[in-house]
Amino acid sequence: MDDLVLLHAFPLDARMWDVPGARTPSLRGSGEPDLTTVARGVLAGLDDLDQFVLGGCSMGGYVAMALLRIAPERVKGLVFVDTKHTADTEEAAANRHAMADRVEREGVGDWLADSMVPNLLGPDASADAEALTRAMILDQRAEDVAWWQRAMARRPDSTGVLESLDVPSLVLVGEHDQLTPPAVAAKLAVTLKHSTSERIEDAGHLPPVEQPAEFRARLERWRTQVGI
Q1: Which residues form the AB hydrolase-1 domain (predicted)?
Q2: From the CB of residue 126, how many other CB atoms can be counted at a distance below 10 Å?
């Protein structure tokens, strides 16, 4: 799977992926918050690949959509995990800015993990999944968390970008996802021309963390079916 690029969720890192052989870059931004900056950074690390299968979970999906605006010809397949293609509502954007401001004031701490973990994981998540999720959150730099939130708050609607694509795509969503529930994933799937949409049972917003073996199996089966 050395042609598979997987982009992590917020506010996590590459440890969320347990997919041997996949490229899992750390997402970093600088300057004015804009996910296009992150997408360009991802592309800069893929000069040895003419084309690749691009996947992203949550924020990683938003970055994937930003990359598609820059270099759609580089992407031969897409994997969207618990993400959406629409822009934030005013309320959602305001909540992101509020968190960014608090992180800058107080730093990353238990308050952030305590507020996010229940929304990220399903009700039956294992202790190991919870421990890993908390560890990833607590390891992030405050400046990155604030930057990511502000960049996501200003991301545009990606409907037109996705409708113009002519590549196979896999849309996965956790059965118990509270942040981008199955109904949202269904809307994303119908926006794509050649999509396969599947629900992963006993998972919330982070199926690759909660159900890593099932996530790998779904991914490998889809790649075999579509021949990429």
Answers
A1: 4-217
A2: 13
Please spell the DSSP secondary structure of 111-137, one letter per residue: HHHHHHHHHHS-TT--HHHHHHHHHHH
Give dist(CA 150, CA 182) in Å, integer: 25
Boundaries of every domain in the chain: 4-226
CATH of domain 4-226: 3.40.50.1820
